[in-house]
């Protein structure tokens, strides 16, 4: 098995390009189904945020897929036109990138506190669609754990956590004190709710437009007012600031409607990708339009000590994944038939794990993925790494094996007892 990732982000693609690859949950589900139907693909995970769209694949060793082309095709976009924006990584490079990505080190706002949740949600969605496999599951799980260590031991101690909502608040403060001002926040998703909560804490009166069929069904943050979505322009005309953060593929605020208002907010922040605010709104008198690309967080170079810590954490995560990959390779080499109790203890454990139902189509030969093929070291490792392997891999296998060993032993005892009863009965006859 091979692990590959490809993606475009704020480093190489501007907002106009990234918004073409932005996806909603429903669109992501369709993309996952399309890509996972490819014969050479065993699993896929798609991460789509305001700063990036990245596709992670688990494919057969013999596969010759071009992941960026698969993604473009699934979105009905020309691969030739956009292939220069993509960066593709294989094996350990893909995992190294995922560790740094989930920790927020690669975000536009370094240390972004939202990306680790977005990575977990991307894996959850793929799992719900039956589009992941054990390699992607393990890589994401170990990488997210490494990201938590980076955040706890490096980012939190060195610079504090930053995020899109907190940077939005800082940008709004540049226009003057917040207390007593009025704001309209379009979007009640994760980002929108966080922005609303932060503004309310600062003493801002916040109004959240909701579509009529959702009025009374969706809960907004405490102390926030609601208005009908159709009346959003009336609320905007009375506001000092406007923030929009939806997943809509269409504009939520249009130039023509805004140009008809008697009064306009002095600052408008568009956090959505694709954009919620028609760009030409920037040309209206007295309006400052800010996009996600205009927000910046801590951008200074990290100290050498922090860089050394990060490298050690990422290397240990890759090493632990290598241990798991080598262990899985051993499992795939277990005998296909024969009595479970006739195997040596370690082989019993391997066979018992192989006996569990498989959700995806895969033969033992196809599942074979040694650490060497992934380019991962599976020897040595730190003491902490060895302990993690024991806890996350060997212990569940031990419990599963013992349960199946007990069932097999009971089955053999029952069979032996029945045989003795039958012989005794024949003797009496």
Describe what you observe in this structure.
The protein is of the alpha/beta class and 429 residues long. The chain is 48% helix and 13% strand. The strands form 2 sheets. A 6-stranded parallel sheet has the order 7-6-5-8-9-10. A 4-stranded antiparallel sheet has the order 2-3-1-4, sandwiched between helices. Strand 5, helix 9 and strand 6 (205-210) form a beta-alpha-beta unit. Helix 6 (115-128) runs antiparallel to helix 7 (134-158). The radius of gyration is 27 Å and the shape is globular. Residues 337-373, 375-386 and 392-414 have low confidence and may be disordered.
SS element count, helices: 16
First-to-last CA distance: 61 Å
Largest sheet composition: 6 strands, parallel
Sheet/helix structural class? alpha/beta
Give a count of the beta strands, DSSP E runs of length 2 or more.
Answer: 10
Stretches with pLDDT under 50, minimum 5 residues = 337-373, 375-386, 392-414
* Strand-residue proportion: 5-15%
| Principal-axis shape | globular
> Helix proportion of residues, in percent?
40-55%
Rg (C-alpha, Å): 27 Å
